[in-house]
Amino acid sequence: IFTAVPRAPPVAVFKLTADFREDGDARKVNLGVGAYRTDEGQPWVLPVVKKVEQMIANDNSLNHEYLPILGLPEFRANASRIALGDDSPAIKENRIGSVQSLGGTGALRIGAEFLRRWYNGNNNTATPVYISAPSWENHNSVFVDAGFKDIRTYHYWDAAKRGLDLQGLLDDMEKAPEFSIFILHACAHNPTGTDPTPDQWKQIAAVMKRRFLFPFFDSAYQGFASGSLDKDAWAVRYFVSEGFELFCAQSFSKNFGLYNERVGNLTVVGKDADNVQRVLSQMEKIVRTTWSNPPSQGARIVATTLTSPQLFAEWKDNVKTMADRVLLMRSELRSRLESLGTPGTWNHITEQIGMFSFTGLNPKQVEYMIKEKHIYLMASGRINMCGLTTKNLDYVAKSIHEAVTK
Ligand code: PLP
């Protein structure tokens, strides 16, 4: 009965890691992975997470009963609070709600499913959904799988100037049909590492408001862009202060290093409390048939950390450790390429923010890096700065130089 099933293509980023593992060359480097690595090239369990895990293990009041369908209340409330800010007008006015989800992906998926069912007409699969060009490749798939039929891209990356194409983006918003959905990266845009400035966000918000466009923020790297949780949430908070109704999908995979615990949160900001409660009641139905109720361990770790001033301070310090290492690798790579005299400009390496950098290497150069140099990176030229270490920097810089000059 399964003989006619075609084989689906592998997921690029996981395939790259599998190829890297199989590569026997001693010089090999993985710049494709979407996770933090230490200067020894190892995964990092945040010290605050280790500490809280022990507290949880020793807490005899905890058990493994089901959580509520919408998740752990103290996790949901505090996750939304760090996205929207302590003095968010929407929180004060009691017009926010949230759903604990399986990672940021789960938050996007529940949000997308809800929008298809209830936004802009019931089960309206024709509402255009706009995704930045380029974007994290799963955005497209999540909205396709949720049933949306009209997925479009909006201008974002200007390859020639290696920066944001603000005019292209604003033009696309002007032309988009009213009520279109726009997926916006809250900070540390994946894969380009290029965010709008506050002033540019203001221009974006003004057009979106005038054109009745729906903002669906994806916040997967809060703390990674600037090292400050508040700064990295600026765009979301500004939109809320402008009176938008919006969704914000949060992932705690990167900023807590809890990749495999699947900790995410979907915040809904609505018009009033009653409105939000009705939305949540529908989301509860969606969760019930999707994963029924979420896992507790990651949510407990995050909730415990966010509710203790001392643990919260420790966490911010841990996030800063990660963000600082990324910054160091950026400046070290740039200075090496500049001293090698590698053709082109390399200021974008330090100007881009977050974990990723869009190097500007073309697919042929990427192929050369992989095949000849055993340095693994995405075909788009995206590299994860955390794949760089003080030990492999020289080799990577020289290899990029050769790829560009050969
Ligand atoms: N959104 C973006 C932009 C991402 O880069 C990622 C992960 O790479 C996610 C969402 C999903 O994160 P999670 O692993 O928590 O599902």
From TrEMBL:
Sequence intervals crossing the membrane: none
Catalytic reaction annotation: (2S)-2-aminobutanoate + 2-oxoglutarate = 2-oxobutanoate + L-glutamate; L-cysteine + 2-oxoglutarate = 2-oxo-3-sulfanylpropanoate + L-glutamate; 3-sulfino-L-alanine + 2-oxoglutarate = 3-sulfinopyruvate + L-glutamate; L-aspartate + 2-oxoglutarate = oxaloacetate + L-glutamate
Pfam families: Aminotran_1_2
PANTHER family: ASPARTATE AMINOTRANSFERASE (PTHR11879), ASPARTATE AMINOTRANSFERASE, CYTOPLASMIC (PTHR11879:SF3)
Key words of the record: Amino-acid biosynthesis, Aminotransferase, Cytoplasm, Pyridoxal phosphate, Transferase
Domain (Aminotransferase class I/classII large): residue spans on this chain: 27-400
Recorded GO MF terms: L-aspartate:2-oxoglutarate aminotransferase activity; L-cysteine transaminase activity; pyridoxal phosphate binding
Highest rank taxon of the organism: Eukaryota
NCBIfam families, alphabetized: PRK09257.1
Record localization: Cytoplasm
Cofactor (UniProt): pyridoxal 5'-phosphate
Biological process (GO), any one: aspartate biosynthetic process
Miscellaneous notes: In eukaryotes there are cytoplasmic, mitochondrial and chloroplastic isozymes.
Organism: Mycteria americana
GO cellular component terms given for this protein: cytosol
Subunit structure: Homodimer.
Name of this chain's protein: Aspartate aminotransferase
